[in-house]
Amino acid sequence: MSRVLLSGNAAIAWGARLAGVDYVPAFPITPQTEIIETLAGWIGSNELDARTVMFESEHSMLTAAGAAASTGVRVFTATSSQGLLYAMEMLYSVAGWRAPFVLVNVSRAVAAPVTLHSDHGDVLAARDSGFLQLHAATCQEALDLVLLGYRTAEHPDVRLPALVNLDGFLLSFTREPVELPDPELARRFVGAFEPGASAFRASRPVSQAVAVLGGGPYSYFRYEMHRASEHAGTVFADAAIELEAATGRANDAVECYRSDDAEVVFFLIGSLSTTAKDAVDRLRESGTRAGLVRPRLLRPFPTAALRSALHGRRAVAVVDQDLSIGSGGVLHAELAGALHGQAGAPLLASFIGGLGGRRVGVDELCSISGEALEAASAGRPPAPRLLYTEAELREVRKLQAIAHEERHR
Amino acid sequence: MYRIRLHGRGGQGIQTGARILASALFVEGFETQDSPLYGAERRGAPVSATVRAARAPIRERGLPARADLIAVGDESLLGVAAAGVLRDADERSWLLIRSGVAAEIWRSRLGRSERVATFALEVEEGAELPLVGAACAGAAARMLGVVSRASLESALERELAALSAQARAASAARAFAAWDELAALAGCVTEEPAPIGAPLPRPDWVDVPLDPADVAAPDIRVPLTSVQVRTGLWRTLRPVIDDALCRRCSWLCSSFCPDGAISIDPDGRPCIDYDHCKGCLVCAAVCPPHAIRVEREAGRATEPEKVG
Ligand code: SF4
Ligand code: SF4
Hints:
- The structure holds 2 protein chains of 2 kinds.
- By secondary structure, chain A is α/β, with parallel strands linked by helices.
- In chain A, α10 links the parallel β10 and β11.
- The model of chain A has no long low-confidence stretch (mean pLDDT 95).
- Chain A has 14 helices and 15 strands.
- In chain A, the strands form 4 sheets. A 6-stranded mixed sheet of chain A has the order 9-11-10-13-14-15, with helices on both faces. Chain A has a 5-stranded mixed sheet with strand order 4-5-7-6-12, with helices on both faces. A two-stranded antiparallel sheet of chain A has the order 1-8.
- By secondary structure, chain B is an alpha/beta fold.
- Chain B contains 9 helices and 10 strands.
- Chain B has helices spanning 14-27, 103-110, 131-144, 149-159, 165-181, 213-216, 224-228, 252-256, 282-286, and strands spanning 2-9, 31-37, 46-54, 69-72, 94-98, 116-119, 237-241, 262-264, 270-272, 292-296.
- A 6-stranded mixed sheet of chain B has the order 2-3-1-4-5-6, with helices on both faces. In chain B, strands 7-10 form a two-stranded antiparallel ribbon. Chain B has a two-stranded antiparallel sheet with strand order 8-9.
- The interface between A and B is large, with 44 and 42 residues.
- The complex binds iron/sulfur cluster (2 copies).
- The site of one iron/sulfur cluster has 13 residues of chain B, from α8.
- The site of one iron/sulfur cluster (SF4) has 13 residues of chain B, from α9.
C-alpha cells in the first residue's frame, strides 16, 4: 500500500482500475471528464486491459453500460449534473434489468441557472431509480466506495447498479493524500463478476417475463428490486468489515463522529462532513456537546442504523445541499420519515445550504447547532432555514441592477 | 495550517505550480491539499489554485477564508477585479508578485505598508510550459521556509514527469531561480495558529424575500452582456493581420473565428475586435497566405478592466 496525492477524480479512476473494469462507455461533462481521460490514458498505454467507447449522449452511454453489464463484463461509467438527468430514463431501465455496474456521479448543481459547482440536486434526483447510492466525503473514500460498490452491486442476491457520488471541485479537483490499495489485495477483495445464469449471450435467448405486464407482475418485479436493495445493506456491511480488516479503513453505512453523548448532531452527506467535524470540535471546545452522523449509504437508506445513532439526542441539524422546490430539504424529509413515531427521537431542524457550491463554513454550522438546540428547548421544530447572508443578497442585487440596466437599454 | 493561493491565467501552469508546492510539502511530511478553481473557459482566463498544509489531516475544503501567502504569476491580474486576487488579503498575508517592478512600488500602489515581495521571470515567446506556476512554487516554497531544496526537487520530478526531459529542466530551472531569488525572505510566511475556543460571530443571515418573477428569473434575453465582458483580457497571444499579405478572401478567418471577433469592412478587409478576441489563433491557422502573424501580449493587458 502506498500513500500518494490524488484528486477525487484520479482516486475514482484508480478504483475502477483496481477493480479491473472491462468496459468504459463514456461521454464528457465537467467536472467528471478527467476520470474518463485518466482511464483512457491507461487503456492507451496498456496499463489497463479494457475498452472505452465514446457515445453521442449520456442516454446511450447508460444504455451501453446496462447492456454490457448484462453480458457479464465489469462496466464502469461516469457523469455529472445535466448528464445524469439526460440519462435518467435509462437509469430506471438498467436498474430494472438488474444489471450491476458502477456509475460515478461527480455532483454539480443542475440548470437553470448554470453553474459548474457542486450540490446534490443531480444525484438525489436518481434516488428512486433502483441504483444503490454511496456518498464519498474524501478522495480516499471515493476510491474505497468504488471497490465496495462493485462488491455490493454484483452480489448474486443484489444485482443492482451502484451510483458512487463525489462532490465536484471540493473532491473531484482536490488532491489530498490517498492510500492506494495493493492491486492484488484489491483484486481479491472485489473478486470476479460471476453473472451465473443471468448473463445474456448472443444466440442463447432467455426470457424471465413478458414485455408488457399488468399491475400484479409489475409490482412483483419492483418489489424484488426493493428487497434486493434492502438486502444490499447487509452485503455492503459485510464487505465494509472485510475491507476494514484488510486496510484499517472503516466505511460503515453510517459514520458517527463524537455523537455518542452529543446533545446536538449534524446530519449531512458528502465532503461537507469534514468541515462539520471541525465545527464539532470547535463546539466541544466551547462546551457544546456536538456530534456528526453522516450516511455514506443513501440507498438503501440505513434506517435502523440512523435510528440507533440518533436515539436520545436532543436535536439534529439537518443540512441539505439540495432543495426539493416547493417542499424543502430531501435529507430532512427522509430522516423525518425514518424517525417519525420513534420513542426518544430528537427534534429535527432543517437547513438548506451549499447550493451551487455556496460555501457552508464552520461559523454557519456553529450557529446552526445553536438554533437547533434552542428549538429543542422550545419543543418546537423551527421553519426550514434557507441559509443566505446579507452580503450574498447584496451581490445578487448588484448583478440584477446591471442586468436590468442592460435589458432596458 | 498554511493556506496559500496562487493566481495566474489559464495556460501558465498555475494548477501545476500548486501541485508542485503541495507535493514538496507532502515530501516534507505535511498533510496537504491542493485544488484549482476555474470557470467555464480556461486558456488566458483568470485561474487560481489553493494549497493547504498542516501537521494533522486537513478537513477544510474549497476556497479558504483567508490566505497566508498570495502568489501572483501574472501582474496584470491585479487590475482585473473579477480575478479577486486581493479579496481576502489581510495584514498577516504576504503578497508575492511576478513583476519587474520593485516591491516598494507595489507596496505604495496597493497601499500596503509591508509584506509585498516580487520575483522576476522572463518567459520566451510562445512558451507552452508550466514555467510561471513552477516559479511561483519555488518562490513560495522558499518563503515558507519549511521546504528543503531536495524536497522541491523531488516534487518537481514527480509533478512534471509527463513532460519531456528538456521541458522538465526548463521548468525546474525557473523554480530554483525563484527559490534563490527569495533567499532573503526564507521563512517569512508563518502558519496561522488554530483558533481556540473563541466563539464565532453569527453569520449575517437574511430571509430571502419573494421577488416578482420578472426580477427573480435568471433569464438573459439580450446580447449585450457578452459585449460587455471583455474576453480579450484573457488573451496571451495576439493575432495581427498583415494588410499587405491578406488576399481579402473575406471569409476564411472571419467564418472560422469561434468568437465572431473578425468583421469584414466594405472593402473586404478583415478587422479583429481585440476587446473580444481570445487569442485562440484559429484564424492564423486557417489563413491560406499566412497573413496573420502571432505576437505576444506581454505587458499590453496591464490597463485596468473597464467596468459597465
Ligand atoms: S485568435 Fe483569431 S480566431 Fe481566435 S478569437 Fe482571436 S480573431 Fe478569433
Ligand atoms: S483568411 Fe487570411 S487572406 Fe483571408 S481575409 Fe483572413 S487574413 Fe485575409
